[in-house]
């Protein structure tokens, strides 16, 4: 959401005030939800949209990078097996990390696919 109000503060309408309020809330939610490291990445951004876009690019990457990440995770998904000395819980955690990574990149598996 871009908060663009072109008239001076004295001339703000109720709609302008609401727009700015929503923009401030969006920025606040983003800032309060992030770790210090993530916050430092976006702290110089002027708008909530700019913050969101920077976070999205950082975590998803451009389309080519996203496709490569999906390919790597799919390969890990297809080859997953219990490692020597690994508990069922540890293997399940690795499996969950892979499927969550895929879901975060837009690739979802149905129960029948697993």
From TrEMBL:
It comes from the Eukaryota. Pfam families: Retrotran_gag_2. Residues 8-21 have a biased composition (Basic and acidic residues). Residues 1-26 are annotated as: Disordered. This is Uncharacterized protein. It comes from Colocasia esculenta (Wild taro).
